[in-house]
Amino acid sequence: MKEINVFLVLMGSLVMAITVQGQHHLWMVQTIPSGYCADRNCRNVIKSDVIVHGLWPVNSSDFTLKGPCDETKISEASPDLSNFSPPPDMYKFWRTLTMSRDEDFWEHEWTDHGTCQSALPQSYFSMGISLYKRIDLASKLSNMKRSSHNAQDFRNKISQIVDNKEVMLRCAYVHGTTTIFLSEVIVCVDMTGQHFIDCNKSNKSKYDNCGHNLITYA
Ligand SMILES: *[C@@H]1O[C@H](CO)[C@@H](O)[C@H](O)[C@H]1NC(C)=O
Ligand SMILES: *[C@@H]1O[C@H](CO)[C@@H](O)[C@H](O)[C@H]1NC(C)=O
Ligand SMILES: *[C@@H]1O[C@H](CO)[C@@H](O)[C@H](O)[C@H]1NC(C)=O
What we know:
By secondary structure, the protein is of the alpha+beta class. 35% of the residues lie in helices and 19% in strands. It contains eight helices and seven strands. The strands form two sheets. Strands 1, 2, 4, 5 and 6 form a five-stranded antiparallel β-sheet that branches. The chain has a two-stranded antiparallel sheet with strand order 3-7. A hairpin with a 6-residue loop joins strand 4 (168-173) and strand 5 (180-189). InterPro entries: RNase_T2-like, RNase_T2-like_sf. Belongs to the RNase T2 family. Pfam families: Ribonuclease_T2. Keywords: Endonuclease, Hydrolase, Lyase, Nuclease, Signal.
């Protein structure tokens, strides 16, 4: 009887979490350090062309769910992700540009986004790393490096990498210059992390801000 009660309570919170939060799919957000740091102060210099920013649950109109969503999940990773052993590649590919420690950045990503989906930290962060390797953006964009292209050329190129699905681009508009830098690339993936899907560029999504401008991947 006790087991059944525990089971029901667990099921109840799972169903609650999914329906209340409205999670629909994930944004795999990747950062181009040179572009991301063009309009803000970055404390860390990272040589990689592309790094992971995060894996963000969004609703069907592509609004990110604002964490912390599930308070009980915060203890899984806080205060210092102590129960979590980061996949070794996280130290290479999931880096912070603005915080003093990568671990602080992961904790922030977990609290703000990870708690809005149902996987535990180990599989959540591993999913991000697998997607990073599978997309392999830096090598696929290498021939577009250090020159200007119409933003739509970038969207098309990246779309081809992810089964021709709609993607989103974020740009840095630097005050006092006409150069627009490619800052982040967002591809959409289902909740299992296995299948790319179209990002829903409903008018309200403010993230895709590159328009049809000439943009630079530096
Ligand atoms: C995209 O977002 C719009 C506006 O919220 C919504 O009506 C539509 O159903 C969404 N499309 C998909 C495929 O989820
Ligand atoms: C998605 O979230 C936004 C912002 O919270 C909300 O305005 C919108 O109605 C939501 N869309 C759906 C389909 O739940
Ligand atoms: C999107 O925005 C444009 C320009 O603001 C508007 O003309 C159009 O009706 C909008 N589409 C939807 C589906 O809201």
